[in-house]
Design goal:
By secondary structure, this protein is α/β, with parallel strands linked by helices. The chain folds into 3 domains: 3-208, 3-Layer(aba) Sandwich (Rossmann fold); 216-371, TPP-binding domain (Rossmann fold, 3-Layer(aba) Sandwich), CATH 3.40.50; 383-494 and 530-573, 3-Layer(aba) Sandwich (Rossmann fold). Helix 10 runs parallel beside helix 14 (345-355).
Length: 617
C-alpha cells in the first residue's frame, strides 16, 4: 500500500481539497475555501498545513468565530448545499463561539463543517490556557457542547482516526435527508502528529447525490388523496429549492390548477407574481395564503419542516385537513399526522403531475380573488407615509423596487422577516435568502458575506435592525478586506422593535426592549433614546456609509452605492412601530397564567381560546 507521511492537519487539508459532489451528472468541488480565526490549538496545526501549500484551498480570515461560521452557513445555503466553507478555530472560547452557528445550521438543515481546536489528547500539559476542567471526567472538554447541536460529532485523539472521522463527516455533509452541522474536534497535539496515510485516502473522491425516487405505491396514495380534495393547497418549502424542483413545482401547479404558498425558505422558488402564488404562509405570512390555508382540506407540504411559524402553531389548518408530507427526510414527512411521501421533491412532484393528468382543480376563484386583494394591500404598505418620519415598510419598498433582476435579499431576525415574507417581491429565482429556522440575530450582517462569496457577480442586499447590528457585525470588516460590495441595510428603530411588539401584544408594557438611558428619577431604562450613529461606526471600519431619514436620501444613496467599489451601509432611521401586523394568523407564546395586570389576564384567556382549536399533532 502506497503511503505518505503527513501530520493530521496536513492530511485533513489534503482530504478536504479532494472532495467533490455530483448531482444529475454535474460535478462540483465541495471545498474551495476555509474560514479561520487562528489561536493556540489551530495556528501551528491547521494553520501550518494551509500556509505550506500543496492544495487549492483559499484561506478566509474570519473576525469572530460565530460570525464566520454563520457566513459559511449562508454560503452553503446559497449554493444549495453543493459547496461548503469549513471553519477552523482555536480551543476554549474560540471553539465555543461556533456552537450557536452549529445550532443554526442544524435547525436549517444546512451543511456546516466545524473544526475547533481542543485540549491535549496526551493530557500532559493539562490544564492548558483556555481549558475548562470537569471534575467528573478528564476526557470531557468544552467541545462536547457541540454534541447537542451537530448531526455528527467526533474527537480525533490519534492521527489515524482522521480517516474514519473524515469519511463520516462527508457522509453527513452530503446527505440531503440528514445534513446539518458536523464537528471534528481536534486536540492540538494530534494536529501536529504524523502518520503514514494511505494515498488512497487522499484521492479525488466524488460523493453522488442520488435522487430518491417516489414509489408507485406512494404516488397512488398521494394522487388518490389529491383527487378527492375540494380545496387543495401546496406549501413550498426550502426542499423545493435544494432539490432544484422549481420547474417541477411550476408544472404540478399549472397542470392541476392547485395554488401554492411559500415558507420563508421556499420564497423565490417561483416568481412572486405567478398567478397561482398566494405568497407567504403562517405567522409572518400574508392574508391571501392564510385565508386559503385556513379553509384547505388537503395540504401538500413539499420540502418543508412545518415549523410553528408555517403552521401558525398548528392553529392555521383545520383539524380534519389531510396533510401529505412530501419530503426527503422521514422525520419531516410524518409531521402533522401526514401521509408520508419520502422522496426527492423534484421526482415526487413530477410523478404526481403525471399521475394527476386529467385532474383540474376547478374552484380557484377564491384563490385568485385573495391574490388580487393581497397585492393591493402590499402596494399600500409599500406606499405608507407619515409626517413623523420614514416608515419601515416604505423604506423596504423603495429598496425592493430599486433592486434589479438577480439581486439577492438576505434576512433572519426581528420584524423585517415578517415584513419581507409578507411584502417582499424577489427579483428572480433564488433571490430571497432568509434564515428563519433559528432566526439567528447576526446572521444577516455576517451571512451576507457568505452569500456574496457564493454569488460574487450579483448585488447582495441584507436587511436587519439596530439590535442585530449591535449583537454581531464583525464580518463587515472581512467584506472590506476582500473588496466585496455588499449592501448593509440597517433599519434603526431604537431597540428590539419586534420583541417590544410581541411584549405589548401579550399585555405587557414596554420593558427592556428599547435602547434608552437609565432614568435617574424612575431607576428604569425609560430615559431619553440613546443617539447611536451606526454610519459613523461602519465608516470607521472602511465602509461607504449613508445616514438616511427621508425617501429622497434613501433613493440617492441606493444609486450612489452602485458606483462604490467596497461594501456600503445605509443607516436608515425609521419610525418605531411601522412594521406590518399579522394577517389571519396566531403564534403561541408562554403568556403568564397568573398576573395582576388585566391586559395580561386577557392575553392568557386568548391563548387558551386558540389552544382549544389547534391541531393536537
Amino acid at each position: 500500500m502506497e503511503t505518505i507521511r503527513l501530520t493530521m492537519a496536513q492530511a485533513l487539508v489534503r482530504f478536504l481539497d479532494n472532495q467533490y459532489v455530483e448531482l444529475d451528472g454535474l460535478e462540483n468541488k465541495f471545498v474551495n475555501s476555509m474560514f479561520g480565526v487562528f489561536g493556540h490549538g489551530c495556528v501551528v496545526g491547521v494553520g501550518q498545513a494551509l500556509q505550506q501549500g500543496g492544495h487549492q484551498i483559499r484561506f478566509l480570515q474570519g473576525k469572530n468565530e460565530q460570525n464566520m461560521a454563520l457566513a459559511a452557513m449562508a454560503f452553503a445555503k446559497q449554493r444549495n448545499r453543493l459547496e461548503i466553507i469549513p471553519c477552523v478555530s482555536s480551543i476554549g472560547p474560540g471553539a465555543m463561539n461556533m456552537v450557536t452557528a452549529a445550532g443554526c445550521a442544524t435547525a436549517n438543515r444546512i451543511p456546516l463543517l466545524l473544526l475547533p481546536g481542543d485540549t491535549f489528547a496526551c493530557r500532559q500539559p493539562d490544564p492548558v490556557l483556555q481549558q475548562a476542567e470537569f471534575f467528573t471526567s478528564f476526557g470531557r472538554t468544552v467541545t462536547d457542547a457541540f454534541r447537542g447541536v451537530c448531526h455528527y460529532f467526533d474527537r480525533i485523539e490519534r492521527p489515524e482516526q482522521l480517516m474514519t472521522a473524515a469519511i463520516h463527516a462527508m457522509r453527513v455533509l452530503t446527505d440531503p435527508a440528514d445534513t446539518g452541522a458536523v464537528c471534528l474536534a481536534m486536540p492540538q497535539d494530534v494536529e501536529g502528529e504524523a502518520y503514514d496515510y494511505p494515498v488512497s485516502f487522499l484521492r479525488r473522491r466524488v460523493w453522488h447525490l442520488e435522487r430518491r425516487a417516489i414509489t408507485a405505491a406512494q404516488t397512488d396514495r398521494a394522487a388518490a388523496i389529491l383527487r378527492e380534495a375540494k380545496r387543495p393547497l401546496v406549501i413550498a418549502g426550502g426542499g423545493v429549492r435544494y432539490s432544484f424542483a422549481h420547474e417541477a413545482l411550476r408544472g404540478f401547479c399549472e397542470s392541476t390548477g392547485i395554488p401554492f404558498c411559500e415558507t420563508q425558505a421556499g420564497k423565490s422558488v417561483l416568481p412572486w407574481d405567478h398567478p397561482l402564488n398566494l405568497g407567504g404562509v403562517g405567522v409572518t405570512g400574508g392574508q391571501a395564503a392564510n385565508v386559503i390555508a385556513r379553509d384547505a382540506d388537503v395540504i401538500l407540504a413539499v420540502g418543508t419542516r412545518l415549523t410553528d411559524f408555517t403552521t401558525a402553531s398548528k392553529w392555521l389548518f383545520r383539524e380534519d385537513a389531510k396533510v401529505i408530507g412530501l419530503n426527503i427526510c422521514p422525520f419531516d414527512a410524518v409531521k402533522m399526522d401526514a401521509e408520508p411521501i419520502i422522496c426527492d421533491a423534484r421526482e415526487g412532484l413530477n410523478a404526481l403531475t403525471e399521475a394527476l393528468k386529467g385532474y383540474r382543480y376547478q374552484e380557484s376563484a377564491a384563490a385568485q380573488a385573495a391574490i388580487r386583494e393581497w397585492n393591493g394591500i402590499v402596494d399600500g404598505w409599500y406606499a405608507a407615509r407619515s409626517d413623523k418620519g420614514l416608515c419601515q415598510t416604505r423604506a423596504l419598498g423603495i429598496i425592493n423596487e430599486f433592486m434589479k433582476k438577480g439581486d439577492i435579499a438576505v434576512g433572519s431576525a426581528g420584524s423585517l422577516p415578517g415584513d419581507m415574507q409578507r411584502l417582499f417581491r424577489p427579483t428572480g429565482r433564488d433571490c430571497y435568502h432568509m434564515e428563519y429556522g433559528f432566526s439567528n440575530m447576526g446572521y444577516e450582517t455576517n451571512g451576507a458575506l457568505g452569500v456574496k462569496l457564493a454569488c460574487p457577480d450579483r448585488e447582495v442586499y441584507t436587511f436587519f435592525g439596530d439590535g442585530t447590528y449591535l449583537m454581531a457585525h464583525s464580518e463587515l470588516v472581512t467584506c472590506v478586506q476582500e473588496g466585496l460590495r455588499v449592501h448593509f441595510c440597517l433599519f434603526d428603530n431604537s431597540g428590539w422593535g419586534c420583541i417590544e411588539n410581541l411584549q405589548n401584544n401579550q399585555g405587557s408594557d414596554t420593558f427592556g426592549t428599547v435602547f434608552r438611558f437609565r432614568n435617574p428619577e424612575t431607576g428604569e431604562l425609560d430615559g431619553a433614546p440613546i443617539p447611536l450613529d451606526f454610519a459613523k461606526n461602519a465608516e470607521g471600519y472602511g465602509l461607504k456609509t449613508y445616514t438616511i431619514r427621508t425617501e429622497e436620501e434613501l433613493k440617492a444613496a441606493l444609486a450612489d452605492a452602485l458606483t462604490q467599489d467596497k461594501p456600503v451601509l445605509y443607516d436608515i432611521k425609521v419610525l418605531p412601530g411601522t412594521m406590518t401586523p399579522g394577517y389571519e394568523s396566531w403564534w403561541r407564546v408562554g403568556v403568564a397564567e397568573v398576573s395582576e395586570q388585566p391586559r395580561v389576564q386577557k392575553a392568557y384567556e386568548s391563548l387558551m381560546e386558540h389552544v382549544a382549536v389547534t391541531r393536537k399533532f
